[in-house]
Amino acid sequence: MRIRIEKRLEIPRYAGIVVPIISVAFALLIMGVILLVFFMGRLGNLSSAFRETFEAYKEMLTWPFANRYGLFSTFMRMVPLAFVALGLSFAYRMKIWNIGGEGQLYMGALASTWGALFLFKDVKSPLMMIVLLSIIGATAGAVWALIPALMKAFARTDEIVVTLMLNYVAIFWVDYLVYGPWKDPKGYGFPGTAPFPSQARLPSFFDDEFHIGIFIALAIALLLQYIYKKTGWGFNSQIVGDNLLAARYSGINVRNYTIIALVVSGAIAGLGGAVQMMGVQHRLQHGFSPGYGYTAIIVAWLAKLNPLAILLVSFLFGGLLVGNDQLQMFYKLPMALISVFQGLVLFCLLGGEAVFKYRLAIVKEVPESE
Amino acid sequence: MEDFPVLEMKHISKSFPGVVANDDISLQLKKGEVHALLGENGAGKTTLMNILFGIYHADRGEVFINNSKVSIASPSHALKHGIGMVQQHFTLVPSFTVAENVILGLKDFGFVIKTKTVESKIKELSEVYGLPVNPRARVWTLSVGERQRIEILKLLYTGASIIILDEPTAVLTPQESDTLFKAIRKLVSEGSSVIFISHKLDEVLSISDRITVLRGGKVVGTVERENIDRRGLIRMMVGRDVLLDQEKPVVETGRVILKIENLNVKNDKDLMSVRNLSLEVRSGEILGIAGVAGNGQRELAEAIYGLRKKVSGRIELDGHELKQGNVAERIRAGLSFIPQDRKTVATCPNLSVMSNLFMKNSICELVHCSPWKLDGRRMHSKADELIDEFSISTPSAKTEVRYLSGGNLQKVVLARELSAEPKVIIAEHPTRGLDIGAMEFVYKSLLLQKKRGAAILLLAGELYEIFRLSDRVAVIYEGQIMGYTPPYPSYIEEIGFMMAGTRQEDH
What we know:
The complex is a heterodimer of chains A (370) and B (507).
Chain A: E1 2-7, H1 15-43, H2 46-66, H3 68-92, H4 101-119, H5 126-155, H6 159-179, E2 204-205, E3 210-211, H7 213-230, H8 232-242, H9 244-249, H10 254-281, H11 292-302, H12 307-330, H13 335-356, E4 358-363
Antiparallel strand pairs in A: 1-4, 2-3
Chain B: E1 5-16, E2 19-30, E3 34-38, H1 45-52, E4 60-65, E5 68-70, H2 75-80, E6 83-86, H3 98-104, H4 115-129, H5 144-157, E7 162-166, H6 174-189, E8 193-198, H7 201-207, E9 210-215, E10 218-224, H8 230-238, E11 256-266, E12 272-282, E13 286-290, H9 297-305, E14 310-317, E15 320-321, H10 327-333, E16 335-338, H11 342-346, H12 353-357, H13 361-364, H14 376-389, H15 406-418, E17 424-428, H16 436-452, E18 455-459, H17 463-469, E19 472-477, E20 480-485, H18 492-499
């Protein structure tokens, strides 16, 4: 008898649920060992290190979902992830790899800040203000994505490289403004702009812990779901994604599809930036995103580009981020260890998916008659 | 010759998602025989041989070699048992020499490679079997036929005595096929056994000792060569008599629908490959373009369809000039295109049969619906209707087309291209790689379109196909039309001259 590895011909349906669960469990297991070593060093005693590790896990896994404050924080973290991931799904369906969600998010935030503090500062109606800031945020994200779109459509540059590089440009641009001309004079030298006026803030509830951004994300998810499943655009974008030659053969204007895919993708991420400003930050700050734009790539991918699944996955990832904050605060874990954990989770999720493409087959071997 | 089964496969079954590729197949191979495995595409020939060669694993069934049961887990395992296979796609390293490629296939070539010894042994083998090849030549400099010989020599070198050839003549010229057939004869006379996979009747009849016919994953029967003729084999393959020489319907040709004037088109290497070409096709007419592949046929078809930009010239569809490179406009104007590359151009492999049928729906509207609200239910029922009408064999309309066989894939393309009632159809090698049943289907469909009044431009390599379908034959050479003949085999010589570059008025 021998065991060999062979490729699965068909990925079973249950894989979409089972594989991520096993992968995350695997990541938790590896992290458990790391934490154990870490606590061992701190406490010098194996049994208390075990207890501490167990407690830390319990805290990390229950806090973000099992109580009011944790849940609100999870929602808050989820919103920007969901926006960017929804935007990315629009381009990824056509196999156009927009890695620039982070930059588009920053540009959306930057533009809405410009609107709130300078351009529309005389607008008094909150509804009017929110609509205007949303539009200007989405436009900024769209323009930021239009640059790689035009370069790809007309000069055949690689969108992965260009969108990625533009992230740094966007982040440095924001840094320049918040350290320089837009710096709040009353901000005690802190790198950030002045706060948004009250009419430029999203309605929020429960002592400002829950803002309505999540409903905007839900509306966009439903809209995208409809577009993907029910419209000619959704249908044709599948063709572009599967076979570019077949798309040209079908009379689809691939150049226009490329440009629109990236621009809409950027617009949704930019809107996410505006919502983040209006709902949570209320001022543009240095490094306001802990890499939402990058995590969103994983979110979109794990959700298989399905808009409703993106909401679910970004909720879970939001919870993961909150749980990590909790560990950092109450267990005094170094920031680096948190990054290690996030890396492990992603690694295991992607690895799990790759590994699941294969299966072990047991081959019965007859002894050879020589 | 002894009647000794060197190989026996018993009750082999293998399923893939949605298809039973092999269903309880048993096969016996005698020492020193050429055993042909004949069947339409998708009949399960290649799957069966991949099981024998250890690439796939059978769900059920047993394999015996020299009367002892074996289990073959991998190709290297198969080679150990003396089974070698030449696949349709060769596995050679182009930048290596012939000898180096042979060495690569050896299990133990030692620490210091004795290239000289290998070279002389290759020379010896190639002389014995009549497979001429220079062991020191680099593979990339060699023709397809020579590469195939290397594959066979590789197997002989490792001592394989059961040799599987998967559609070996598909890539060969007639002369190269002759050489191959001589080598096969030599091989079996030296005591090897050959399994010859093919869907071409004539070569099977000329080379084999016994023939096993597969259909739909099952064995129809095994017959001795001398006990069967062409017609009998066809009946076994398709389960019915195929009308190989159906009458062309008589259709009155109408006005000129497709008109091309002084067209010039460049190929991918930026060389002019269609030169000052003019032609006309009338409604109800099939114009067959004969020519050796690579004489501008592809560029001509792509330029008419708008996938390739023309350098100069005029393309008119029903009196209305077509703009540069606008495919959508052409589809709307009633131009259909059946490209040669079914898998890479005409279909999306990972999308469903239904999606592939409606690939052009936003323009040609097989099912009329608003682009803002597709009518899934009506599309689904229309898809089922087309699957029925074009007898596409697929588990359902939702099956991804990469699971379909070549013939069924082509039927998907035909269903889409022909049901839009096009005014002009460009058919580029519409039956390449198809089995007889599917070929007949393509012919019938095209003739039906002609009857309906479509103007059809047929670009094909096989003269048989051109005679079979066309009303007029044009011969293309280096991007120019050399002349026209009526579609009768008596003009073969004239067509041959023109295919080689002689103009009609020159002789």
